[in-house]
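User: Can you predict the 3D structure for this chain?
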Amino acid sequence: MRKHLLLSGIVSVFLTVPCIAETVHFPEEIVPLQVGDKKIEHSFFNRVDEVELTPGVYQFKLKYTDLYEQGYDEHQVVDSEPFWVTMTIAANTDYDVVFNRADNAVAAKVFAEAPQVSLQAKGESLGTPLAIIAEPNLSSGATPQVATATAASTTAIATATAVQVPASRPTANAGNAPNAAAMLDFWWQQASAQEQQAFINKVTKNK
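Assistant: Here is the predicted structure, written as structure tokens:
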């Protein structure tokens, strides 16, 4: 039987907000940490992988975490720092958060330095890239919108503040930057066959 965890503001939510919501699904490797000023609670046995939102614009705090086998009974965890993105949710549309998973831990470390995720409407073949933004100012007093975080056995109902923030990409940390060979390997895996051939032609021509 599904349990419900009700957070503050639940009475006003049902009185003032329509019960129509769209669902955003997250893959195992992309963890939703926060919507606006409302944190999403996870546990070892109960991970939130879906969030229900009324149509609008939301700021999400996400984290990339992945696990790679290094040999017999050995694994390596690759994590990113938490990062913020803006999602625009349209009415009558459910979404998947998608990304290109690296083939190995080296490439995953490159990805973790600057994660790239997209928002893809259900039934569509292409997603819209989500630009990483600066941490939003959550004390602006904007009108709250409703977000419902759904896990396997828990539904959390909370209010999420929608705040417009100019998009900006984070500055790379030169001291911790991965080496050029690892970066080349990672982007080679992300390139299409046509892009790979164009690169080979360019390198061969410049010899």
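The two ends are 66 Å apart (CA to CA). The first strand starts at residue 3 and ends at 6.
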